[in-house]
User: Fold these one by one.
Assistant:
Number 1:
Amino acid sequence: MDGLDILIAQSLQSQWGHREPSPRIWQRLSRRIASLASRFAPEEYPTFYSPSPRRPERIFAPPFYLAGSLVLWRYDPMLMQLV
Amino acid sequence: MESQTSDQSAVPDGVLVARLRQGDTAALAELYERYKVPIFRTALAITRDQGAAEDILQECFVRLLTHADRIHSNVPVGPWLYRVAINLSCDWVHHRQRWSVLLGRLVERWAAPLRVEGTVEEQEIQEKVREAIRTLPLPQQVVIVLHYLEGLSLKEIAEILEVPEGTVKSRLHYGREALREHLAEWQPRRGVVYELT
């Protein structure tokens, strides 16, 4: 190891040798893993992966999003047939 | 690799990878603790961007989870993680090159860490060395970072990059020679002579 080697090593170490990732990276990673884990759940371990808490038990979505449309959808028999 | 030699009583990587395959995310947490610093540091030294390095660190461990089935459990996982981090870092640098170099330098100077070591003159030449490293071809930069920052041997670097050891040696040699020439041009103008032989 010569003078140039030492200089290169010192230059890199002084700038990045003491740097560490922020603790929030693990928190972000944990959240991402939690969402991935349910998708990658192996069949032999079904209970380990709980479903995402954001997923509703039953999906209920009216065909129209506006309140007025909801009224139409609920009471107009013709529209009911279409739906 | 670092984690395999630092603590003989630690659970081997292969065991953790096997647990990971079975959905044990605690094993991932242990591997993260083991490798987060060297992987982050390597990504940071190549990209020179804190946010990018953190994203790359995160992506490495997501891929470790999703690719656990394809990783050999009888070898340390370090080289695999280094390889993913280097590939992601190089991709990031290629994309970044489309942006203004000047803007990048300004941001780097603005975001420079407060911690300072050595005299002003030492800091100045160290900055010059880092700038000179940045001008090297990316494969040479990667070898220099792994060798001088991470302290890896040529054999370990060859294993990570999946190239012959001679290729690593050659990249290191040409990288050093380019740096020597770069710094030799700079020294006479500064009136300071450092022993670089």
Number 2:
Amino acid sequence: MKGHWGDTLQPALVQHVELTAIAVVIGFAIAFPLALLAHRYRPLEHPIGIFSALLYTIPSLALFQLLIPFTGLTRTTVEVALVSYTLVILFPNITAGLHSTPDEVLEAAQGMGLTRLQVLLRVELPLAVPAIVGGLRVAVVSTVAIATIAAFLLPDGLGYPIVLALKEPTPFKTEIYSAGVLAIAFAIACDLLLVTLRRFLVPWASKGVA
Amino acid sequence: MLADAANLHTFVDAMRFIGDHPGFLAQKALEQLELSGAALGIALVVALPLGVVLGHFHRGSNLAISASIFGRALPSLVLIAAFLTVLGIGFVNNMVALAVLGTGPILTNSYDSVDRVDKDIVESARGMGMTGRQILGHIELPLAIPLLFTGIRISAVTIVATAPIAAIAGGGGLGDIIVNPASYRLSGVLGASVCVMALSALVFVALAGIQISVTPRGLRGTTVIGDQTRKEHA
């Protein structure tokens, strides 16, 4: 295994980090304004919710393949699919967080003379942070897992050493275990990072939860 | 413009592939459902009683939370590959790997659904002299059904959607076509992908239908169709 760190595992890990980071950042950049829109115009929320539940049932392997005619065997294909899955997770979590402000709190804020924008920025958004970070945790961990499937299309990410190993007549166990453990460790590391971020952003909400 | 024409053409070819091989595709779809059904069965037998009993006694919330987090962190490809090295290539390896994937949502949701039943209702049932078993059977389980069934549905869709990946480890099913572009070419791969998509959507819709019909009438409005296993607000 030591011999393969430099030529196989390390580049695969770096690619995997890139695949995940791009997908989550773009996914968040799309989901956040959409959620604000759905928060402002409530009737939009339900259709978007059902649409995303259906989108999430599309198997990743099939979605990757179906995008090939449009974007080819490229990283764009992989990212479009990964971004779609993060959207499906992030959107409902962010909207739920924004909706969760208790009515009394909203009334108090209005009573104090806050404008709609001020209510959003100073009351609703801070209260939604735990839900938003919760959504990010699920999105990041799922993306790390789904990104391994990208290896069916491209020699990219931690899935690739595994797919290669499986194609051997007698599968190479070392590749499977080492790349697998790396993928899981990366997912757990991201999760811990986000938990720490939440502690930092909303210290009042972290009592006694893992 | 050229690219657009090429796309359309590819999809027409894919549809033609479906039209030309309906029997073959149906047989592959059945293979996939067989594998998925066996995996879901194992996951149900293991996770459902465990989650319900733990929820009834309000014990082991850590186990339920870890199941949901680890379930998501385990990439299906890694799981399938790892079981292959232990159990060898074929049906059993894939069935076990998919069952492990399906266990998380069922365990988490069956625990949550029973654990979160309104304490006041359980108290009054106990006050009326109901035994623990009666409370579980007549009060907690009926009230738990919407959330509990959501877990089963998520698990089933996850298993069916992941099953094509099992083809790389001899799992059979529609995935056989998808992972073999050398024999079936892009048209076959796309045709099979469309079938895989349709199959997952079908399972989703069928289970959502069952879910609505098994939900007690008083709870119909609360049936959870959205897919958040556990709202991670905490």
